[in-house]
Specification:
This protein has 173 residues and is mainly alpha-helical. It is 59% helix and 6% strand. Strands 1-2 form a two-stranded antiparallel sheet.
């Protein structure tokens, strides 16, 4: 049995999240309306697909940085094509590969500061930030990306989402 370390939540699981979103976007690329997807949204007052992908990658990259005690990168919201979104996922995957898991595992109870909107900041322990703020945000925006593309007619199934999370761990009987 493996232990549940902070790095598992900062690095290992986010790698699976990136792969899941990659799977979803790869299917979307094959759709005849693919060029319109970056601006697609579930409802008029909700953010589009481009924002959902940005938010997944931004939260993962901020999680890595904050868990290592470094300044988070500023990721531009310039994801105007599915290709740009996949490039951002590649950038995020590379950041995950470079993460210092030993350092991350030593910083569980360190305090991190995060922005909560214009002129508002908050502080949390690293573990509470990752489990109670970063990961829920990442999963929410991953699910919104999936839902937007389903609404747009992309033939996605549950396994397109889940296969990245179960690969190498699930034994079919």
């Amino acid at each position: 049995m493996s232990s549940l370390t902070l790095s598992r939540h900062v690095v290992t699981i986010p790698k699976k999240i990136v792969e899941s979103l990659e799977n979803i976007l790869s299917k979307a690329e094959q759709h005849p309306k693919a060029a319109s997807f970056p601006e697609a949204r579930l409802a008029e007052d909700m953010f589009p697909l481009s924002f959902q992908v940005w938010c997944v990658t931004d939260n993962i990259c901020k999680g890595i940085a904050r868990a290592q005690g470094t300044e988070p990168p500023v990721l531009e919201r310039d994801l105007t094509t599915l290709a740009a979104m996949k490039d951002r996922l590649k950038f995020t995957a590379e950041a995950l590969e470079k993460a210092d898991v030993d350092l991350i595992n030593k910083r569980e109870e360190e305090t991190v500061t995060l922005g909560l909107g214009p002129g508002k900041n908050g502080q949390m322990s690293t573990i509470n930030y990752i489990l109670g703020y970063s990961q829920p945000n990442v999963y929410f925006h991953l699910n919104m990306a999936y839902a937007i593309l389903r609404k747009e007619g992309v033939e996605l199934g549950k396994q397109d989402y889940l296969s990245a999370f179960t690969k190498g761990d699930l034994t079919i009987l």
